[in-house]
C-alpha cells in the first residue's frame, strides 16, 4: 500500500471510532503531574507515549527544504575534493513507525522509510566531474530502539529513562539517502510534570563506523508538552545535533477518538547547518 492510502485509511478509522476517551488521557486516579502524558513510556516521537500492551502504528509524511545544505563532492560520489560547499536540498519521505509497550516500563520501536531526495550543487563548486544535481530515491533509514524507564515520577522526583538504538546499513551504494554504515546511539532523559506543562530533557551519544572519531555527541533536546483539553495537545522543543545543527520543533496533536491521534509537526532550522524547513503530518493509531 502507498503511504497516501495508509493515511487515508487511518483517517477513516479515526472518524469511525468515536469513543470519547483518548488513548493517552490520564485517568481521574492518576496524580496531577501525569495530566499531560498519562502513564506510558516515552517514545522517540515528539510528545508521544506508549503503555503496557499497547501497539502504536504511525504512518507519516515529511518534506525537507534546505537552501544551504553542506556537502563535500567526495560525499556525493564525484571528484576527490573534501572542500565544503553549500547546495540546495529537497526531499520527501514516507515513514512507518511501530511502538509496543512490552511492560509498564519497557518499550520497543521500529521504523522504516522510503525517500526521494535531490541536491543541487553549488555554482562555486569547480570539482572535476561535477554534476548539476544528484538525485536518489529508495529505502531510507531503517532503525530499531529499546526504551526503558528506570525511575517513575513521584511527587518529589522526576521520571528517568534511557534508550539504545541501531540504524541498519542498507544503502551502501547511495550518497544522500539511507544509511551506508552501522550507526548506534545511546541516550538518557528526564521528565517532570507541572501545572503549566511537562518538560523533558534528553542527551545522547552516537557511534558511526564511518566517522572519525567513531564516538561522538549525538542529539540533545529540551521539550515541553501541554494538554489543552481531552482532545488537544501542543508540543514545543529545541533539538540539536552537535553545536551547529539546532532546530525549533512544534507540534499540534488532535485525538478525535481513543484509537487515533493526528499529528501536525513543523521543524524550523535555527542554525545554518540545520534543515531550514521540515513539515510533517501523520495519523497515529493505537491498538
Strand content: over 45%
Under the CATH scheme, which architecture would be assigned?
Beta Barrel
Strand order of the largest sheet: 3-4-5-6-7-8-9-10-11-12-13-14
Specify Rg, calculated over alpha carbons. Answer: 20 Å
CATH class, named Mainly Beta
Label the overall shape.
Answer: elongated
Mean pLDDT: 90
CATH topology descriptor:
Porin
Can you describe this structure?
This protein is mainly β and about 290 residues long. The chain has one domain (about 5-285): Beta Barrel (Porin), CATH 2.40.160. It is about 5% helix and about 55% strand. The chain contains 1 helix and 14 strands. The protein has one helix at about 5-15; strands spanning about 40, 50, 55-70, 85-100, 105-120, 135-150, 160-165, 185-195, 195-210, 215-225, 230-240, 245-255, 260-270, 275-285. Strands 3-4-5-6-7-8-9-10-11-12-13-14 form a 12-stranded antiparallel beta barrel. It has a two-stranded antiparallel sheet with strand order 1-2. A hairpin with a 6-residue loop joins strand 9 and strand 10. The chain is elongated. It starts with a helix and ends with a strand. Mean pLDDT is about 90; it is low at about 15-25.
Q: What attributes characterize this protein structure?
A:
1 helix; 287 residues; twelve-stranded antiparallel β-barrel; Porin; two-stranded antiparallel ribbon; 56% strand
Amino acid at each position: 500500500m502507498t503511504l497516501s492510502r495508509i493515511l487515508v485509511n487511518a483517517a477513516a478509522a479515526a472518524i469511525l471510532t468515536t469513543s470519547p476517551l483518548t488513548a493517552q488521557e490520564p485517568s481521574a486516579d492518576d496524580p496531577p503531574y501525569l495530566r499531560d502524558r498519562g502513564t506510558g513510556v516515552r517514545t522517540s516521537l515528539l510528545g508521544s507515549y506508549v503503555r503496557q500492551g499497547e501497539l502504536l502504528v504511525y504512518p507519516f509524511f515529511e518534506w525537507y527544504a534546505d537552501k544551504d545544505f553542506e556537502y563535500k563532492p567526495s560525499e556525493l560520489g564525484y571528484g576527490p575534493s573534501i572542500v565544503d560547499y553549500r547546495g540546495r536540498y529537497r526531499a520527501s519521505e514516507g515513514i512507518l513507525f511501530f511502538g509496543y509497550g512490552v511492560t509498564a516500563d519497557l518499550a520497543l520501536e521500529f521504523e522504516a522509510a522510503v525517500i526521494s531526495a535531490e541536491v543541487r550543487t553549488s555554482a562555486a563548486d569547480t570539482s572535476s566531474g561535477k554534476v548539476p544535481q544528484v538525485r536518489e530515491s529508495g529505502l531510507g533509514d531503517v532503525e530499531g530502539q529499546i526504551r526503558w524507564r528506570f525511575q517513575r515520577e513521584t511527587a518529589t522526583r522526576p521520571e528517568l529513562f534511557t534508550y539504545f538504538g541501531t540504524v541498519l546499513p542498507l544503502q551502501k551504494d547511495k550518497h544522500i539517502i539511507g544509511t551506508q554504515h552501522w550507526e548506534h546511539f545511546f541516550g538518557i532523559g528526564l521528565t517532570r510534570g507541572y501545572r503549566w506543562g511537562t518538560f523533558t530533557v534528553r542527551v545522547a551519544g552516537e557511534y558511526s563506523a564511518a566517522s572519525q572519531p567513531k564516538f561522538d555527541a549525538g542529539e540533545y533536546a529540551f521539550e515541553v508538552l501541554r494538554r489543552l483539553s481531552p482532545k488537544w495537545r501542543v508540543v514545543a522543543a529545541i533539538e540539536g545535533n552537535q553545536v551547529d545543527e539546532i532546530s525549533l520543533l512544534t507540534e499540534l496533536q488532535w485525538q478525535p477518538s481513543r484509537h487515533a491521534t493526528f499529528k501536525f509537526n513543523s521543524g524550523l532550522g535555527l542554525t545554518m547547518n540545520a534543515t531550514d524547513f521540515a513539515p510533517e503530518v501523520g495519523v497515529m493509531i493505537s491498538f
